[in-house]
Structure prediction request, 115 residues.
Amino acid sequence: QVQLVESGGGLVQPGGSLRLSCAASRTILGGNIMGWYRQAPGKQRELVAMYTTGGSSRYADSAKGRFTISRDSAKNTMYLQMNSLKPEDTAVYYCYINFRARDYWGQGTQVTVSS
Prediction:
């Protein structure tokens, strides 16, 4: 079992930055698929950024050059640094991990980009 808790969302103006955190309840070593998804109202949940089993990072086209995924294994925490935010980035952001062949999701954190 893994519990994931996101934090760091909020209201930010266009062009601003936020850093989301995802704290895991147990040690999550490399080799697991883990990442960030988001879901805007009326839209399907979509991948934002992820780590592959090999440890490489992947980004959605909409996130490339603006968002950075990272993790601190010592703190069992994954991050999503979001810069140059746009109104279309407004969504609930979820962290995700596939651990021992099971999918785990956090409860989500709201990000609103608006002036």
Q: What stands out?
A: The two ends are 40 Å apart (CA to CA). The chain has a mean pLDDT of 94. The CA atoms of residues 19 and 81 lie 4 Å apart.
